[in-house]
Specification:
297 residues, Rossmann fold, 2 domains, 4-stranded parallel beta sheet
């Protein structure tokens, strides 16, 4: 999808040049790809093309402005009642057209470019999200608050979020490092690299992601590579029953430090893999798991 970076500025100039002197100022926001978008008024009919973006709007108190969301938009419980418009990888364009949205919230690395192009051709403004740091989550709260007409609430939530994040960072950063393998899939075996927010959380908790230097954001890795890195902790991010099965499969390699010391843990992927304000609860759990291993528990 080709999105010219100056398109927003052109729209802004037109609005300012043609609008009446008494008109409200347009809403100008830059998304995570650097594209500036302009709305003449706050969005009231929003489609969410990723579960984490659905969560943001409920945090901001504007969940009732979501007219359509993709599968797995399951938090909070009210999100399950929103009409579905496909999956994050394949949109139902007819359903989107019927809903008449005035804003689409999209996931830069998760939504296929070809699908986003289809939405773009409908003339629907698209805000692309890709938070990779805790500070980006706070900034997303501010920007989405502005786009949806609750700017003050967005700023308040962002301030609170950053204050709580700082407390966690101070509590755990700087402790003796622990080598961590963070598993997100079993077959093929997959993890996350150092550019992903989860890897930065591991750092904040005093851990070291053994695959932080791999190029791909969510790389496929071999078991030999994991064994060679000898992680002191293995964390399986998946629904509980699935994660337990993954960890059982590692027990055959009794020489691994994580296996030998029984530092095989599970974590709720919705809490930590989704870059939303809830991630601090996931970070708290992550830090506690790493500290348990550090303490020899």
């Amino acid at each position: 999808m080709h999105r010219p970076i100056l398109r927003g500025f052109t729209a802004l100039l037109l609005l300012c040049a043609t609008g009446p002197a008494s008109a409200e100022l347009p809403i100008v926001v830059q998304d995570d790809t650097g594209v500036t978008m302009v709305l003449s008024k706050p969005a009231k009919r929003i489609i969410s093309l990723a579960p984490h973006l659905t969560e943001y709007l409920f945090h901001l108190g504007v969940g009732d402005q979501i007219v359509g969301a993709v599968d797995y938009s399951n938090y909070p419980a009210k999100a399950k009642l929103i009409p579905r418009i496909g999956s994050h990888q394949k949109f139902n364009l007819e359903a989107i057209i019927a809903l008449g949205p005035d804003l689409a919230l999209a996931w830069h690395s998760g939504n296929p470019n070809s699908e986003l192009t289809r939405v773009d051709r409908l003339g629907i403004p698209i805000f692309l999200s890709e938070p990779s740091r805790l500070e980006h989550i706070a900034d997303t709260l501010r920007r989405l608050g502005r786009l949806t007409g609750v700017e003050n609430r967005g700023h308040h939530l962002a301030k609170t979020f950053l204050a709580d994040a700082l407390i966690l960072k101070k509590q755990y950063s700087g402790r003796s490092p622990m080598r961590v393998f963070y598993q997100v899939w079993q077959d093929p075996l997959m993890t996350l690299n150092g550019k992903h927010l989860v890897s930065r959380l591991i750092r904040h908790c005093g851990g070291i992601n053994i695959f932080e230097h791999v190029d791909s954001l969510a790389p496929t890795v071999s078991r030999e590579a994991v064994i060679g890195a000898d992680p002191e902790i293995i964390i399986a991010a998946a629904p509980a029953s699935m994660a337990r099965d993954w960890l059982v499969s590692w027990r055959r390699w009794s020489g691994l430090s994580a296996v030998e010391n029984k530092h095989l843990f599970t974590i709720d992927p919705d809490l930590i893999n989704r870059a939303t304000p809830r991630i601090l609860a996931g970070m708290q759990t992550l830090c506690e798991l790493i500290q348990r291993a550090r303490s020899g528990q």
